[in-house]
Amino acid sequence: MRKQWIFGGLFLCGLLAGNTKAEEKKNDLPDKATVEQIICRVNDYWQTNQPAEQWAFWHVAAYHTGNMAAYERTGREQYRAYSEAWAEHNQWKGAKSDDKLQWKLTYGETDEHVLFGDWQICFQTYVDLYHLDPEPKKIARAREVMEYEMGTSRNDYWWWADGLYMVMPVMTKLYRVTRNPLYLEKLYEYWTYANEIMYDDEEGLYYRDGKYVYPQHKTLNGKKDFWARGDGWVFAALAKVLTDLPAEDVHRAEYIQRYREMAKALVRCQQEEGYWTRSLLDPQQAPGRETSGTAFFTFGLFWGINNGWLDEATYLPVALKGWNYLSTIALQPDGRIGYVQPIGEKAIPGQVVDASSTADFGVGAFLLAACEVAKYVDRQ
Question: What is the value of pTM for the model shown?
Answer without folding.
Answer: 0.93
